[in-house]
Specification:
heterodimer, A: six-stranded mixed sheet, B: alpha+beta, 2 domains, 10 strands
Chain lengths: 243, 378
Amino acid sequence: MDTTTIGGCAPEAAICARGISRDFEAGQTTIRVLHDINTDIRPGEMTYVVGESGSGKTTLISIMCGILWPTEGEVKVFGTDIYKLSDTDLVKFRLNNIGFIFQQYNLIPSIDVASNAAVPLIAQGMPREEARERAKVLLDKLNIGNQADKLPRQLSGGQQQRVAIARALVHEPRLVVCDEPTAALDASSGRRVMDLLREVAVAPDRACIIVTHDNRIFDLADRIIVLEDGRITHDGKEMPDGH
Amino acid sequence: MLWIAIRMLTGDAQKFYGLLFGIGFSTLLITQQMTIFVNLVERGASGVYNAPEAEVWVMDPVSRTTDVSYAMPGTALDRVRSVEGVEWAVPHLRAVANVRTADGDLEGVAVIGVDDSTLIGLPERMAKGDKSVMFAPDSVVIDDTGTTRFFPPEQNPIGERLELNDQRAVIRGIADSIPSFTSTVVLYTRYSNALNFVPGTRNRLSFVLVGVSEGQTPEQVAARIEAETGLKAETREEFSQAGVNFIIENTGIPTNFGITVFLGFVVGVAIVGLTFSLFLRDNIKQFGALKAIGVTNSKIVQMVAAQAGMVGIIGYALGVVGTVAFIKGFSANPFFKGFYIPWQIPLISFAAVVVILAITGLIAIRSVLNTEPASVFR
């Protein structure tokens, strides 16, 4: 698909999604969960993707970060048409350019906090001790440097989420993708995590997408994209009335 | 990443020890049962091993093993001695007899008549006494395993009298010998004595034991004896192998041990397969996260292989050490006398461990490889 014919991509766009549709098979029925999504994600902004459960927001960010193939359409991340890459190149692209923060943190329970935070660097081939030292610097910045040698289960939920943030940023990716980062946290912890995320993840050359339905943190967004039934129904600085 | 894989494995202590138990138990069962099997069937050749000087065994053409033999006429000895390449040839008698024990029981024994002058046919070492005791009247030397059947541990068998086929025999020494397959008590005596102890038949000579001249090979001399005498002649190696083959062909032992070894393999596959699958399933979110972050499937395979390798090496070592401890621990038991672990057996059990881990690893890793990275967002 030629992007120029459907609106083109702004040269500065971190993500350029054009004509994105996605179908899922449910028995003999095909369900379309995304309908012709066209949007750009800009660097230097914290972009929220919000919507009810089943609205397609997780599917959309999965496609945008290269872990779920769209049925139709194309996605360029910093100018690279990621779904035209080979499988191996796509995995490498993710490793070098994207940081992930998951709702359940998905930390490895049997290795310490510093090693967990260092996982992307270790995966890139950096020696473990060097990677741990780099991770510790970031953990210090996130105010959990003194927890570096502990196991994840010894930390609170908010602290574990900070470890997940450190893991997402340690290799200095240009795109950070967060899935419900505050869903497992109480209001104050959630707010602190989001403040921290804004402080460390948002940069002029880095884009940050957050999937959430946590209305306690909507005021922290630079931009909010609302999805309903797989379609973008709102794209602006504030949440629309009625939500 | 391999370090992370190992820590993931060891961090789940329950499954880690479960996997070690599975591999260790399988290795123990396979190695121990094969060791017992090999040592047991090798006892089919104990008669040959206990007469180490003999390089060629000459016998009636229908004879098959030291215990399944048909006697030859005494003239066979002279015919063998006349064959070129025969350095020496001595008579060897093997027969069964009955002994009345001190408490009145009847016990079947094997009587082995060795050469009167050279004592060739007697085991190399004596556990008690000297070989020269064989020259005393009515003298018999009992095998060390046999003493445990006839006498309590606190009783010294030396000097004890036996009623051997209604004749007086006196135990004057104990031979350090390899037990027979049936663990029958063995009494060694001189050939001339043996003729008296064993009921008379026309032919009494069971075997002729032969040493070959310098410059000749046992194979050459055996072939020449067969050609010139019409008797059957086998080298020490051939005849010992015949004894082993006889046990394998005529008993259910290979089947029984084979089933146990197979069960050990199946138990290994079952325990390891189940535990490994559970371990990977428990960590599926972590593997999914790693895949999303950018760890390739080939790296994931390497991680799982490292986990399997670690479990395999430690579990295998535990199994082999367990087998060695078993053999050592039972070495005082006459049944296990002289048991050893042939070097091939640990290799075979290692191959079995590799196959177990390959099968279970391949089954278990499918779930990890099939996990979509996007699943971590669900």
